[in-house]
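Residues pack. One example:


***
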Amino acid sequence: MGRICAPFGVKGWIRVQPFTQEVDGLLAYPEWWVAGGRGWEIYRVAESGVHGANLLARLEGFADRETAASLKNRDVAIPRDRMPEAGSGEYYWADLLELEVENVHGERLGYVERLLETGANTVLVVKGERQRLLPFVSGVVLEVNRAAGKLRVDWGPDY
C-alpha cells in the first residue's frame, strides 16, 4: 500500500509514498506491516499526516533520524482481512495481479503482471509472449472472475 522513501527530520519521522487511491488511505490503519529482512514486521503508528502527495509518519520505537533511516525503501502493507470490502465493480489492485487474460475469442494474452495509474485510467500490464498495455475500462475489460483466476477482455492479439 506504500513504500517508505526516506527519513524526515530528526525525530524519527519517515516519508511514505502511498500506493492507495487516496493519499491518506494508509492513515486509517493504526498498525502497518513493514517488509523486513525476515518477513513482515508490525509497527504501531504513533503520529501521521499528509504532506503533499506523500505521508509523514512516526512509528513507535523510532525516535531519531538514524533509526528511521533503517526503514528506507521498505514496503508498507495492511493485511487484506483488515481492509474494507471492495464495492460492486471495484477491485483492489492486488486482486487483479496474476489473473489470466483471455480475449472474447478465447485467445490467451498472458497474465496481469502489474498495474499503472496514468491519470486518465488504470492500465493493466499484461505479460505473455509480449507485453501489452490494456486500459482498465468497461469497454475493454468485460469480466473479472477472481474465482476462476481470469479476466475476459475485448482486445485483439495484434493490438
Q: What stands out?
A: The chain has two helices and twelve strands. The chain has two domains: 2-82, 93-153. The first helix runs from residue 65 to 69.
